[in-house]
Design goal:
- The structure is a single chain.
- By secondary structure, this protein is of the alpha+beta class.
- The chain has four helices and twelve strands; from the N terminus they run ααβαββββββββαβββ.
- The protein has one domain.
- It has a four-stranded antiparallel β-sheet, with no helix packed on it.
- A hairpin with a 3-residue loop joins strand 10 and strand 11.
- It is globular, with a radius of gyration of 20 Å.
């Protein structure tokens, strides 16, 4: 009897998969090549020294098609209150990472959340494949609200902003700089 149930479950699973849209490897390969990536100079708010630093690294700024306007370059207080830091999602050579420029200086930026661009793709409506990684500044309220709602690592005393590292429509985490290291705090699910 159990063999019959396993067979029925397998046949049902195969039929469900067969009925859904088929996304081939060549479609994923094409999608990663078609990601809209802006040059750093496309962000007039970004200080010129940081534009030059990003250009020297061969960075482009990938864009998520579901988000309006230019994004993935942010300004915030990511180290301490009162200090204006910049962060950019830098895509170079098929790999993206968040570069954090402390106090607007191009010297020794932090590099965090390094991932292959192809790993930040997802199916979006049928056989459409899109890039889905985004960053945004978040404050104390967001960090504590998400910790209370979902648990995770207990945040330290929050006195500056974190970076919301988002996989659009899927999940996220907050990258929070504390005592010389990056904490991975609860985001949205």
């Amino acid at each position: 009897m159990s063999r019959l149930w396993v067979t029925l479950a397998l046949v049902t699973s195969v039929r469900c998969v067969a009925q859904g849209p088929t996304v081939s490897q060549s479609m994923w390969d094409a999608a990663v090549r078609q990601v809209v990536r802006l040059k750093p100079a496309a962000f007039p708010e970004l200080p010129k020294n940081l534009v030059a630093a990003l250009q020297r690294r061969g960075c482009t700024i990938p864009q998520v098609p579901m988000i309006d306007g230019r994004h993935n370059v942010i300004k915030g207080e990511f180290s301490k209150p009162g200090q204006a830091d910049w962060a950019a999602l830098c895509s170079a050579g098929g790999v993206s990472s968040v570069l954090v420029f402390w106090n607007g200086s191009e010297t020794n930026p932090a590099e965090i959340a390094k991932r292959n661009d192809v790993d930040r793709l997802q199916s979006w409506g049928g056989d459409r494949i899109v890039y889905s990684s985004a960053i945004a500044p978040v404050g104390r309220g967001y960090i504590l609200e998400h910790y209370r709602a979902y648990g995770g690592e207990k945040p330290p005393a929050i006195d500056h902003e974190g970076i919301h590292d988002l996989f659009y429509g899927k999940a996220s985490e907050v990258l929070y700089f504390y005592r010389g290291r990056w904490l991975h705090l609860t985001g949205a699910d």
